[in-house]
Write a structure and sequence with these properties.
The protein is mainly α. The chain has six helices and no strands.
């Protein structure tokens, strides 16, 4: 049963990563005024997705211990880096690859 919650928790982290990519796309644009910068559809949708991911994460904490949840949450760094590479065509340095490898090793180690 806990495995299912871990998968859901990681899915929420992935959903949150998509939201961050959407915010970065919105930040690249020029707006007429500051109000459009915060009330454009991409930003509103991104924050709604963040809220959904937060609700899912809180629900998963009913079963997942806080110590494990913190480790699983670190997977978001990996998701954001991979999505940034795939969607935004950002470069991934050797340092980022090493950091992602350490995160993945840590998450697997704690999960097992």
């Amino acid at each position: 049963m806990m495995t299912a919650f871990i998968i859901v928790f990681l899915s929420a982290s992935l959903i949150s990563a998509f939201s961050q990519i959407l915010l970065k796309i919105a930040a690249r644009q020029q707006y007429k005024s500051w109000i459009y910068e915060y009330l454009n559809p991409r930003v509103v949708i991104a924050y709604a997705i963040f809220f959904l991911a937060t609700l899912i994460t809180v629900y998963c904490y009913k079963v997942i211990p806080l110590s494990l949840g913190a480790m699983l949450e670190a997977s978001g760094y990996v998701f954001v880096t991979v999505l940034g590479y795939l969607i935004l065509k950002e470069k991934v340095s050797k340092q980022k690859l090493l950091g992602m490898a350490l995160i993945i090793i840590g998450v697997v180690f704690v999960a097992v």
